[in-house]
Amino acid sequence: MAWYPLGRHVGETVYPGLMLTATSLQSVLSWLGVPISLSNICIFLPPAFAALTALVSGLLTHELWGPTAGLTATCLVALAPGHISRSTAGSYDNEAVALCGLQLTSYLWVRSVKTGSMYWATLCSFSYVYLVSAWGGYVFIINLIPLHVFVLLVCQRFSSRVYIAYNTFYILSLILSMQVPFVGFKAVCSSEHMASAGIFVLLQVATCLHHVRRQLLGWEPRFVSLAVLGVLGMAMFVLMLIFVQAGVIAPWSERLRALWAPSWRSAVVASVSEHQPSNIVTFFLDLHIMLAIAPVGLWFCCNQVDDARFFMVTYGVTAAWLAHAMVRLMVTLAPPMCILAAISLSRFLDEVFSDEQHLTEDIADSSVGEECATNGTNGTNGSSTLNVLQQDWKSIREELHCRRQDDVLESSGPTARIIMLTAFIMIIAIFVSHCTYMANKAYSSPGVIVERIQQDGTRVVMDDFREAFQWLRHNTAEDARVMAWWDYGYQIAGMSGRTTVVDNNTWNNTHIALVAKTLMSTEAVAHGLLQSIGVDLVLVVFGGLGYRGDDIAKAPWMVRIAASVFPDIKEKNYFTPGQGVVPDEEALPAFKNSLLYQLSYHRFAELQPDRSRPPSFDQARQFEMGKSVGRLCWLEEAFTSENWIVRIYRVNSAGNRGEVRCDRGTSNVL
Q1: How far apart are alpha carbons 648 and 644 in whole angstroms?
Q2: Is the pTM of this model over 0.90?
Q3: Which GO terms describe its molecular function (predicted)?
């Protein structure tokens, strides 16, 4: 029922972790006597794992800095809009559970490096394998951990703890991740995993060189240097042979090109709005005040660095760069930004209360010292030495108490401390208000229901998608095959129960390009392609009444995707110079005669929803279409939703009878 007529092997084209988590939770709850449906599990799974993500982030921050920072990080992660965007109820997607796995893997890795324990490294590998089974973003952590080890090597902080932790993690994670069908041998053959393999080899070389240096301490220094260079050169030569034999050198160069030039992606990947580069507005809406506070925490980590804080610095910098390259990866930036912001906020609170805290601690220490001196005096029947010690301790205590009181009075007094705390509370209140607004307005609206604000301020809710999908379910045959752009494939299959040609899995770029070519061809050419595929119905999304995210807006990407596979589709035939693909009077003939244009604007000239504007006025693009499109020859209108957002056409095996002559040699051109 998907990717007709090719079909799709579900086990090898989807990450199973999300589904396994949901079904496992239902089984456990049923065993405990809690009756709950699988649909409710799927609805409430994202916020439940969001809570776990906040707790694990707090543990990671506690391990890095302390309990105050850990508690602060937990609160910030729970509120951050960048985290809420993927964890609202009903947001049943891979990131909903994968982000918790990402943070858990980071926490366990930090514990492994700090302790050098194989136990923690084994748990880290198990957490990583769960992340592999749930989300393709596991590539981030499998490159982040080797980068952390490499930074430790460069900074000469390599130790046996790092060696034990990484070797245990890499070997176990490599073997276990290969058991996920979607990954398989990619773990040893794909370029995304070469960094981890290279660091594994580099660690063995570094350890061998360290052993050679210890054995040759008394030898001639030049001979030692020559032996070290020889071993290193041999290791690099063997590693290069392995890469060439595996055939990963060429893909690696392409990956580097994509890494340093984020705009270089395939047309299908680049066509997704979430895959576009982020701008400053996106950073502000998802992070707010953490944009200003997190860099301070990064500076604190660099100023008081250790092996674990090196990981946090690497994590924050790489996540920021990836979030800049792709909007979708903003979700990976939110937790490290919250952690760094929590570190800076905890330092601020420590500084505010530092004077009184130090004064209390010093007085307590002096009291303990006095008690010890007194006990010692009683035990020795008033020996002269301990009497002198007791008198000296009392004098030190009195002097320390007076100095601390003078420092407190001369430094920030109660007024300054109150002002700082008031400003701190106001900033946090503004942040909480912003997070609540974003959660309510931006991340709580279902995508299948369109909400539009008119010029007079009234809100209009357009439920055209569910209306069209219900029409498909009740008015078409069960084996009907529907062709639409891949954005709507999952919705058609899930809500209508009908067979789709392409869907959101996007595993086959050629098949998507075939759909794009069909929509960009003339009706006569497109009809032949539709019959060759076996399509019964064509669904297009049209925004002439104010819906901006329609198929006309996606037409430039359709042209690029089709041109990347089929040479007969030329971008210059569709792109107006300096404007791209435009549907108005300046549109090129190839686009005006395309099937997408014909189906979108069919009978639109008859419509005049706004009396203050002329008929056939496109409200989404703010132009008057003018001349109406001609009559369809090979397709006929079957359904149009209330607000004209979803339009469905039936594919006829023969031409429509009427005034227009329909044959293969002619097409209805403008």
Answers
A1: 10
A2: no
A3: dolichyl-diphosphooligosaccharide-protein glycotransferase activity; metal ion binding
Q: Each residue of 14-65: pLDDT tens digit?
A: 899 999 999 999 999 999 999 899 999 999 999 999 999 999 999 999 999 9
Residues 6+ apart with CB under 8 A from 520: 555, 558, 559, 562, 569, 574, 590, 591, 594, 595, 596
Three-class secondary structure of residue 440 per DSSP:
helix
Structure tokens at 97: 């559970």
Closest CA to 526 of 661, 668, 648, 657: 668
| DSSP line for 313-325 | HHHHHHHHHHHHH
For residues 612 and 636, is the Cβ–Cβ distance under 8 A? no
- In 3D space, the residue among 25, 15, 67, 76 whose CA is nearest the CA of residue 49 turns out to be 25
Spell out the residues 6+ positions from residue 565 whose beta carbon is closer than 8 angstroms to its own.
509, 510, 513, 514, 517
Strand-pair partners of 459: 453
The number of angstroms, rounded, from the C-alpha of 646 to the middle of its chain's C-alpha atoms is 30
- In what helix (H) or strand (E) does residue 638 lie, and over which residues does it extend? strand 635-640
Of the candidates 553, 643, 635, 559, the residue with the CA atom closest to the CA atom of residue 602: 635
CA 380 to chain centre: 70
Which two tokens mark 618? 């496109």
How do residues 417-441 score in pLDDT, each as one tens digit?
Answer: 788 888 888 989 999 999 999 988 8
Give Dmax (Cα) for the chain: 125
Name the pairing type of β-strands 646-651 and 537-541.
Answer: antiparallel
Instruction: Extract the tokens encoding 425.
Output: 């509370």
Q: How many CB atoms lie within 10 A of CB 383?
A: 12
3-state per-residue secondary structure call for 529-559: HHHHHCCCEEEEECCCCCCCCCCCCCHHHHH
Tokens of 190: 């794909």
Section 601-623 average pLDDT = 76
Asked if residues 327 and 82 have their Cβ atoms less than 8 Å apart, the reply is no
Phi, psi dihedral angles at 551 (to 5 degrees)? -70, -25
- How far does CA 2 lie from the centroid of its chain? 26
The tally of CA atoms less than 13 A away on the side-chain side of residue 653 is 1
pLDDT band of residue 582 (cuts 50, 70, 90) is: low
Burial (CB count <10 Å: 0-12, 13-18, 19+), residue 220? exposed
How far is CA 67 from each of CA 301, 368, 633, 653, rounded to the nearest angstrom?
16, 26, 72, 71
Task: Give the type of residue at 253.
Answer: S
Other Cβ atoms within 10 Å of 217 Cβ, number: 7
Task: Report residue 20 as tokens.
Answer: 């396994």
- Number of C-beta neighbours around residue 572 at 10 A: 10
β-pair partners for 451: 461
d(CA 325, CA 319): 10
Token representation of residue 558: 């359709």
- The DSSP output letter for 657 is P
Burial 268-296 (b: 16+ CB within 10 A, else e): beebbeebbebeeebbebbbbbbeebbbb
Token duo for residue 174: 């490599």
For residue 387, the tally of other CB atoms under 10 A from its CB is 14
DSSP state of 383: -
The span from the CA of 76 to the CA of 337, in Å, is 9
pLDDT in tens, 232-291: 666 666 665 555 545 444 444 444 444 445 445 677 777 777 778 888 999 999 999 999
